[in-house]
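Obj: model holo form, ligand = glycine.
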Amino acid sequence: MKVLVVGGGGREHAIIKKVKENKSVEAIYALPGNGGIAADAQCVNIGAKDIDAIVAFATENKIDYAIVAPDDPLVLGAVDALEAKGIPCFGPRANAAIIEGSKVFSKNLMKKYGIPTAAYEVFDDMDAALAYLESAPIPTVIKADGLALGKGVIIAMTRDEAKDAVRSMMEDKVFGKSGDHIVIEEFLTGPEVSVLAFTDGKTVVPMVSSMDHKRAGDHDTGLNTGGMGTIAPNPYYTADIASTCMETIFLPTMNAMNAEGRTFKGCLYFGLMLTPNGPKVIEYNCRFGDPETQVVLPLLESDLLTVMQAVTEERLSEVEVKFSTGAACCVIMASEGYPTAYEKGYEITIPASRAQNVYVAGAALKDGKLLTSGGRVLGVTATAENLPAAIEKAYSYVNEIHFDNAFFRHDIGARAMKALKEDK
Ligand code: AMP
Ligand code: GLY
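Output (holo structure tokens):
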């Protein structure tokens, strides 16, 4: 089989390494991939948003199966376009990807179908939003409607901060058209859990739970990033909570999308907050999370491609989706300065014996050397029989890897370890 993967970050590297375990895979292409992914796939210089070029490449090269990993091409209709040419795909069509593409859509969906989430109001008029903020409970959360590279959410601790956020989105258009409509919502508290789930519109199969670490600095300080590390499973997510989520969130979401004529097929990501009033949805993503995928897939014991094809063919209930009982930790090694300004072009050295533990997020190949080319550079992952062992191993691997200007958080998994201890 010839498989195509759209995307070029650490998540895509993790998907590619796992898909390659299937013996029927004879070629795997990454569009665009990156210098590190090139060790595991043929990288083709086509951008993930260039739908026409992706479809042309897939038809010319007789691709048997396509996996569309990032949000942008999904929201832009990459799956629709590939399917129109007869190419089976993993990922939702555009009419279902809207669950991530529009926060107004997803909030209204949850309200209509009684799925627990933060209380909210939608505004398309700035003056109305500012007037509402005069008496809204503080802290409050301001969200731009559309995709905003994960940066369209502002937690305002004061009324003035909230008003500034509204003005920056609706007047200064810092997120472009994404700020035409905004959501102002209730501030929730509690541990966060990421749950990725396979769904074919008939069955929903949650994967092992995980925890992201979004802030740049240790102890959750500094700016929000795309994610500085993950652990799985998430110790806050007990079996009881999992069954509540299945009943009140996962199945109702799948059914709601069906009822709206927007059947979701692919990986549906539930960003949850375990509040004192039960689990609530913070956000949906229409795809695998990054860097959650880098800890979830290493724990998957079943064959990924087989499961993905079952999703495409709507027979997910017939396949086994089994996870190891162990744990995983992924530490992101980033370029100093990320998520704002950072330098590129530093040589990366990874011992050959560690290649299997590294997912490359931002690197380019030049004259046979791997050079840093992004803010997030590497995801260094370890699996072990339990969480403390996985964390220790991941950090020992980080110490074996080098590039100038590297920085990473030293406390990935620390909050999870606290939960484990409180449990005893
Ligand atoms: P999002 O981009 O929607 O994942 O939001 C980014 C982060 O903002 C989340 O991971 C949460 O930590 C935080 N957040 C979003 N919505 C809320 C909320 N209603 N209450 C508290 N924190 C929130
Ligand atoms: N790690 C959060 C995301 O993928 O959006």
